[in-house]
Amino acid sequence: MPATLHSDSPLVPAVKLTGVSARYEQNVVFDDLCLEIAAGQFAGIVGPTACGKSTLLKIILGIHAVSAGQVELYSYPVNTVRPGTIGYVPQLGSVDWNFPVTVEEVVSMGLYTNGCIWPWLSKQERACIRDLAHRLGVNDCLQNHISDISGGQRQRTFLARALINNPKLLILDEPTSGVDIKTQHEVLHLLGDINKGGITILLTTHDLNAVASHLPWVICFNRGLVAQGRPNTIFTNEILTKTYGGDIVIVKSEGHLLIANSTPLNFMDEHP
After folding, report:
1. Strand 15-24's sheet: what is its strand order?
2. Would you list the DSSP string of the chain?
3. What's the rounded Cα separation, in Å, for the pair 65 and 79?
4. How far apart are alpha carbons 204 and 181 in whole angstroms?
């Protein structure tokens, strides 16, 4: 029987990986990884393309098998956790925007991960969807086709789908990609508010400046854990060079960080 998580103790980590190794057939992604994410944390994973960030998320979600090690959520093995305990927002670039579905229907899909089997919504479920849509600012477009809404509304729609079951852990893969700077800040500010409500949040991103501005915790990752901590202590030239393999320009002014990549543009293509 799937486990229902009861522990809200800050002493119990939301996510704990012990000696975890991951691979695709014969290709090792990372090996002997140990990582803990505190309950209630709002953390971002940063690192170069193809460094294993998305694979790490899939392992925490329980959809990619590990070749060694243990994965626990709130001290329970990940494969025993009740569906709906984790909310997941995929990369928007992976979504087929021509699929014939409305905003309301997308949000309602989140209910099926929690055992809902009926093809229609109850009055209570519709009320729940409307309330959540209002909180996330998409209540005016519930009947719109997903191709007819803005990038910010799309992100909020899939966020609503992930939150409809009141998860304890929210995972987002590149939530700030493909949207403008204003929308990036709006999404991260919204996630900060959600985190204050008690939900642990883990996301991946390539935007170091957004992390420095909005997130209290950062995990530098490149086929393994490089470092983790608060951005103002972790974002150093030494750590970011180990993470990305090239020089990073860091400017600190009045408590703020500005980060620029001084690496040639073709570096990442030559070093995936």
Report:
1. 27-37, 15-24, 68-73, 76-77
2. -PBPP----TTS-SEEEEEEEEEETTEEEEEEEEEEE-TT-EEEEE--TTSSHHHHHHHHHT-S--SEEEEEETTEEGGGBPTTSEEEE--GGGS-TTSS-BHHHHHHHHHHTTT---SS--HHHHHHHHHHHHHHT-GGGTTSBGGGS-HHHHHHHHHHHHHTT--SEEEEESTTTTS-HHHHHHHHHHHHHHHHTT-EEEEE-S-HHHHHHH-SEEEEESSSEEEEE-HHHH--HHHHHHHHSS-EEEEEETTEEEEEE-S-TTHHHH--
3. 10
4. 17
**Digit-coded pLDDT (tens) for 222-236:** 999 999 999 999 999
pTM comes to 0.87
Count the residues in the chain.
Answer: 272
C-alpha 211/C-alpha 53 separation (Å) is 15
pLDDT value at residue 112: 79
- For the cut 80, the answer to whether the pLDDT of residue 117 exceeds it is no
pLDDT value at 92 more than 50: yes
Mean pLDDT score, 94-111:
90
Measure the CA dihedral 113/119/125/129, to 10°: 80
The per-residue pLDDT of the chain, averaged, comes to 88
> How close are the terminal C-alpha atoms of the chain, in Å?
41
How large is the average pLDDT for residues 248-253? 80
